[in-house]
Design brief:
single chain; 218 residues; mainly alpha; two-stranded antiparallel ribbon; elongated
Length: 218
Amino acid sequence: MNVPNALTLLRIFFVPLLVAALVQEDSSFHLFGLVLSNKVVALMIFLAAAFTDLMDGYLARRWNQITTLGMLLDPIADKLLISAALVALVQVHRVPAWMAVLIIGREFAVSGLRSIAASEGYTIQASELGKTKMVTQVAAIALLLISEELPGVAPIASLALWGAMVFALVSAADYVRKFWRRIDESIKERRRIELIRLEKARQRSVMRAAAAARQRTR
């Protein structure tokens, strides 16, 4: 296994640690002689996981180690990280449940559309909107965790969360547009091929009938 794929798997490993740290309210952890609250530990875990997201793609491109496994695992790891963080933040009453449902639902919906497109032989690449969506989600979750220790950051964190939701919905609409365009092209192409096949079959039938008629007249 190469380093980029190992970083992706490490991000998945961080997910249960993040949830465990977030839901342990009013608890503290001792690390290298320091006493850290569960929110600080959760923030450290989340930022470490987000850093692996940045590095695995960069290293895969730089070292030419882009693999099918990495292409499959990377979006799964991203969705697991964001979804787990949002669900845990709902549990501790830092994120409205309806916002988490919209953002997480968007992730699964887009994954479904991309899978259907892939089954038709098309690949819907991540758009700039999708990349911006991921950045805003990471920033919003990090600010929400920081606001637990610094209440003054709460208004900025709330604004960032709204921004993440808006980008999630806008990028979802962009994926839907690309999906329908691709599927529409695929359906039209299949219909064109089917019409050509039917026309060729009709022409062969006419030719056979004409040949049979000539034989009868001899």
